[in-house]
Amino acid sequence: MITNKKLFLLGAIFIPTLSMASTAPLNNSQPENTGTPEYLIDGDMVLDSVSEFHTFSANRAANTSGLDSAVGWPNGIVPFQLVGIASGSQNEKNILEAMEEIERASRVNFVHKTSSHSNYLTIYGHALDDEREKNKICSANIGYANGGRRQAWIPSYCSVGTAIHELLHILGYRHEHQRTDRDYHTRDGQRYSLTVNDRYVPCTLQSAFRTSSLISRSRPYDFQSIMHYSNSDRTGCTSGATGKAFSYQNLDTGAAINTLGNFRMSNGDLQSLRDGYGRNRSQTPVFLGSSHKDETSLRISVVWYQVHDYPDYFRVNETSEEFIDINRNGRLDVGTPMTYRISASNYWRDAFEIYFGDSLPEKKNGYRYRFTVEACWDGGACSSESAAQTISVLQRAREPEPYIEDNVSTDKEFYVRWNSQPQVQYFKAYRNGSYLGQITGNSLKQSLPSGTYKYEIQACNARGCSDKATLTHKHSVKIEGVPTSAPRIDDLIDSDWDNIAEFGFYKVARATEYRFRIAGQGLVYTGSIQTPYQDTDGGYKSIYRKAPDGRYQVSITACNINGCGPTATETVSVWSDF
């Protein structure tokens, strides 16, 4: 079964830009020469000198493979400092978020500049000059070059996507729309053409719409690249007319494509970034949270760092089976396999959620579910990188509700019963503090003499046991007649070093009370002791009294609520056992 599911994103790329609060503390703003460079080329790409303009690749380190005729940052490490940008401002947040997105997609690592860094990036919170401020243009140098100080100008009006664009310039990437093959190229077996409408190109961006031989990408032309200018309306430099500067067409179908550029890195951007800087972070999805769930309305969070390019959808395969016999049919049932298709059209960060309980059916209590997640594309291909997670759905056992069933109140037998719960695997029972064991049913049969009994019952499953439910039962057993036998008295009595003697005897049937008299050595003891009712003779009972060595006459009478039976009398000897 295939189920389409909307993607729940944990975050989004765009954060509204706010004016930098004048009262907020500023980031590092050490004095630097921030004068306008001699040349500004290609709209927002800035060169530092005339010589660099004419000898762009000469007299410096060798260009880095995978970059656009530029030198990459050694080991992908970019020390940076922010100048004129308020700490905690939206401007700072946008820049740091842009850095984070690039780091997640590659081995690039932006680190805060220290005094030990002589090669670093300075990002200013103002525009390059008044003209760029007026036209809200953000700017940056290209690549690492020969090191030293590299610069970017990212004011508060620059969005996260624009900040990514400028940082990719710093990393060595130029504009996609300035490729020499833009006028005619093929992609996915079809022919395309890009035409520039010069009458709508602004004065400050004239060179940015010309082709450049410095762009050295070997991958197919990517009109969805974040390094491709958008096709928004612009006002021409000489004409003063407003319109779209690009016309992009599929030559095979004649269809016009008006949406160009991007606010995020495209698949092609990711591939180009990884061509230049590699990709070595986790490629395996990670399931978050416990592998046991209380609720049947599951919410599964998945984090996939540096997912393989940008997928069109995530495919989640599900299998399930009972792990306790929740259906009480004597077997462990197997659930129906399911496949869920989760749209990734809005995928940007690294996490998404699958929620069962709204548009998707809830899971079954007592079942174990195994989910496998893959990244897939509409063409049918799925990544070889995937992960699986097994989640057991089992509600915690609730405290049971015990009650007594004693239909014949005068006999010995009665039942302790409690309510059933489908998620319970067994119960624990205690009587007067003593553990009676595990019980798989919902009742406990008892056969006991008269007395007061305190029961404690716990409901348990793989998640643990509930609190103890307590029940006290005062049990009365009807007694027929009086005892017919006399107790048998031990004739040899031991005493300890403190002359405490143990006068012992054997109990008889029907007796619940034994009345005694012990006399000798000038001492006389009388009294009674209570015992549980029993149907047969047997069992030993002791009476402890202080008694020096010598002979004593002991008389014991067995009694119950109906009266007393015969009396046993015996002369016994007490001697010290030490």
UniProtKB/TrEMBL annotation:
InterPro entries assigned to the protein according to its UniProt record, in alphabetical order: Ig-like_fold (IPR013783), MetalloPept_cat_dom_sf (IPR024079), Peptidase_M12A (IPR001506), Peptidase_Metallo (IPR006026)
Active site (record annotation): 166
SMART domains found in the cross-reference section: ZnMc (SM00235)
Cofactor(s) for this UniProt protein: Zn(2+)
Keywords assigned: Hydrolase, Metal-binding, Metalloprotease, Protease, Zinc
Cofactor note: Binds 1 zinc ion per subunit.
Binding residues annotated for Zn(2+), in chain numbering: 165, 169, 175
GO biological process terms, semicolon-separated: proteolysis
Molecular functions (GO terms): metalloendopeptidase activity; zinc ion binding
Protein name per Swiss-Prot or TrEMBL: Uncharacterized protein
Source organism per UniProt: Pseudoalteromonas rubra
Source species taxonomy: Bacteria, Pseudomonadati, Pseudomonadota, Gammaproteobacteria, Alteromonadales
